[in-house]
Specification:
By secondary structure, the protein is of the alpha+beta class. The chain folds into 2 domains: 80 residues, Gyrase A, domain 2, CATH 3.30.1360.40; 144 residues, Cyclophilin (Beta Barrel). The chain has 5 helices and 14 strands. A hairpin with a 6-residue loop joins strand 6 and strand 7. The radius of gyration is 19 Å and the shape is globular. It comes from Marivivens niveibacter.
């Protein structure tokens, strides 16, 4: 998939794989962000989004034309990035969220069926955003195209919420209009840790059901019982 490479102010470039998210555009954005984040390129910052990558550079040291040439050389075809490995995470999850029954009613199924389905679908980290280390995950089947609620309400750190065929796993306590379906002990972000954020766009996540008692025992774990392997 060949992207557009556009100027982003005087010190940036936008590598755009689409104007709306698609599975292909999102995978390409995640892969290219991984490539361009390597130290050898010397960029100030590289951030992947749902369908593009923003690159910041030092305009005193280089310019957009040279940066575009570097980016083009790395991604003549976005499939160049397919060899980049991503992590496959397993996150213990207690599906006891206050809105689980409502989600089940909206999609016309039982709460247990919702749990079984979400636990069986590995989801991709589509992007990190809104708060440090906080992932947007998806995409879920069409029937989870649930609208956001009109009123915000607080959820705790580790809350798993769903709307618009996506899920968010909250790194910190926050208000949200998404529906709360589960809880985790995952420590997604810690400013004193290196790296501070454990997830990267392109990683895959499996939510593994646990009981409330099992989840409580994981609260003392440094990363909340989360485990991972490299993708093959």
């Amino acid at each position: 998939m060949v992207p557009q490479i556009l100027p982003l102010g005087i010190d940036g470039a936008l590598v755009r794989f689409g104007t709306v998210m698609s599975d292909e555009a999102n995978q390409c954005a995640a892969q290219v962000a991984q490539i361009l984040s390597q130290d050898e390129f010397g960029f100030i910052d590289v951030q992947g989004t749902l369908a593009s990558v923003a690159v910041r550079f030092d305009p005193i040291q280089t310019n957009f034309s040279d940066v575009r040439a570097v980016i083009t050389a790395q991604i003549n075809d976005a499939t160049t990035a397919q060899a980049i490995p991503f992590k496959q995470w397993r996150i213990p999850t207690c599906f006891n969220g206050e809105d689980l029954a409502e989600v089940a009613a909206i999609i016309g199924d039982s709460a247990q069926s919702v749990i079984d389905e979400i636990a069986s679908i590995p989801v991709r980290v589509l992007t990190i955003g809104f708060a440090p280390g906080q992932p947007y995950l998806g995409e879920l089947p069409d029937r989870y195209g649930i609208p956001r609620q009109s009123q915000l309400r607080p959820v705790p750190a580790g809350a798993l919420v769903v709307a618009v065929r996506q899920m968010v796993l909250f790194a910190n306590a926050s208000p949200t209009g998404w529906r709360w379906i589960g809880a985790t002990a995952a420590r997604l972000f810690d400013a004193g840790r290196d790296p501070a954020a454990i997830l990267t766009a392109g990683d895959m996540i499996e939510f593994c059901p646990v009981t409330a008692d099992q989840l409580a025992k994981l609260q003392s774990d440094p990363i909340g019982g989360v485990s991972w392997d490299w993708s093959s």
